[in-house]
Amino acid sequence: MRTKWMLTGLLILIKLCLWGCAVGTVDTIETGDSKTRQRRILIATQKSDFKQAVIQAVRDTLDNNSSYLKVIDVKKLPHETINDYHAVIILNQCMAGRPDPRVESFIDDAPQKEKIIVLTTGRLDSWKPESSRVDAITSASVMSRATIIGQTLAGKALEIIRAP
């Protein structure tokens, strides 16, 4: 029985490593004045057609409502500081029931979790951060819903920005 669990764990580890190596990288995009201290939003994502469509809907919705918007690959999340932004949107895919470790670390280490909005996609996964201060939603990657989900994420970011 123990050997079966070890073999299963090893296969999951190999799958995660191959998935991490095979997933493409998202190019960093910055719009607005990077030196401004007002209404700064960070979006961290992974590469997929669905996530790119969601991000485009977020960008379209936030067009005139943010002074600075930065889109990065989740792989670069450890190099960002939550204090530099008014809101952080993370689009994350679960594998084997867990998020990308960089996403989980960023959330765990963030002192201002109420600034974070997480969208988790996955077939059967519904992972949400442990902290109730993080605004977390899950969704299947259905292209016909990308615009609605993007608008929802943008609305949540605007609520955070406008909060006293």
Jot down its keywords:
164 residues, alpha/beta, Rossmann fold, 6-stranded mixed sheet, 37% helix, 21% strand, globular
Describe, in plain words, how this protein is organized in 3D.
There is one protein chain. The chain is an alpha/beta fold. The chain has a single domain, classed as Flavodoxin domain (Rossmann fold, 3-Layer(aba) Sandwich). Helix content is 37%, strand content 21%. The protein is built from four helices and six strands; from the N terminus they run H-E-E-H-E-E-H-E-E-H. A six-stranded mixed β-sheet has the order 1-3-2-4-5-6, covered by helices on one side. Helix 3 links the parallel strand 4 and strand 5. Helix 2 packs across helix 4. The N and C termini lie far apart (55 Å). About 3% of the residues have low confidence.
Task: Outline the secondary-structure elements.
Layout (H helix, E strand, L loop, with lengths): L1 H21 L6 E4 L7 E6 L3 H14 L5 E6 L13 E7 L7 H9 L6 E6 L13 E5 L6 H17 L2
Parallel strand pairs: 2-3, 2-4, 4-5, 5-6
Antiparallel strand pairs: 1-3
Structure summary:
By secondary structure, the protein is α/β, with parallel strands linked by helices.
